[in-house]
Fold Alanine/glycine:cation symporter family protein.
Amino acid sequence: MEQFLKWVANFSAWLWGYPLIALLLISGLYMTFKLGFFQFRHFPYIVGQTLGSIRKKPKGVGTVTPFQALTSALSSTIGAANIVGVPAAIMFGGPGAVFWMWVIAFIGMSLKFSESVLAVHYREKNEKGEYIGGPMYYMTKGLNMKWLGVWFSLALMIELIPSIMVQGNSVASTVNSTFSFPPIWTGVIIAVIMAVVVFGGIKRIGKVTEIFVPFMAIIYVGSALFILFMNLELVPDFFSTVFSYAFAPAPVIGGFAGAAIVETIRWGFARGIYSNESGLGTAPIAHAAATTDHPVRQGFWSIFGVFVDTIIVCTSTAFVVISSGVWTATDAMNDPSSLTTVAFKHYFGQFGSVLVTISLIFFVVSTILVVIFYGAKQAEFLFGLKASYGIQVVYIIAVVFGAIGAAEVIWEFLDIMLAAILIPNLIAILLLSNKVKALKTEFFTAPQYYKKDTGK
């Protein structure tokens, strides 16, 4: 059994190395070219249609507001990867990995946009009158390949069990190490909170996340910005370090062991993809419920989501870690995941450690909240509305079991199961790329959308 688990771990590491990174990069570049680099050409307009319209009444039909759909999606993507994944990328790929995180974020925007546009275009209403959609629906209705939708739904529904257990364990371990609170009670408290929120459906989740996500972002990013403004003289050095090591091998510095340029790119791409989940097919499940007058308009919100997750939150972590110099400490390689805590402690003392702990708890709890909803939508697609309530109970129980470290063996399969979700979704996006392009062209040429907004 031990040999088998070792093989699984090695296979997972290989699979999420060059094979899947190359697949995502090629797919993202293909969609970027096919859509005419619109995420670059129209970025100011996209920001105006998202951040600039938060207080405006949304156009069209839907179950939740576009902002609530975004914050629900961000609840899933802004998680432990933003806090512990970024310093790991820096330690194994060098500071230049941050640049490649930015690159894959802008390329990945085309994938995130495409899957969200398709989710809205092919969405349906369920028995409760709520709008539902996602990869399983555009695979079934757009490609007439229900078997692919079933594959995606089954894989995601099953994958979320170990995923939620890992998240639950992460929170419980963090709380226990910082506040000496028993893991079992942390798990129970989180499970109760999850039950109260998720059984209220996407409307209640949306109402919670539209308050929760900005609040947790303000705490974490605001603290990083405070450090930045108090140390403005370090900003040029930060960018100089990132850019200089992005195109050249990073030398050995203190506890940093150095990195070849290939590893720099690989770690930057891998952490960026893992953080913003572009192409994974999860975020469009939230975006499908949004009130909108055209699928492309909601697709803009998914682009803005990638920008917030990777360009703002991940960069905030990178600045604090690199500017503090903790990544060059002699013992930095011993525990790369803890470097964010060490960096904030460098600037704020013990308060910095508590700040990161609280942020991590908020990030992970919000992730659990939304992925339970994602799993429920898979059960609803496969077996009907009643089944969605049953799987939510399973997920809530998984939080408690995960908190005490139960069934750690199945955690080894997490990355392989993620690949089983990613691959069919990328297939669907590429096969439906002409539909995405047609919808994008319609939005930018029809008089009632882009032309009306811009007066052109």
Summary: The mean pLDDT is 89. Strands lie at 124-125, 131-132. Residues 146-179 form the longest helix (34 residues).
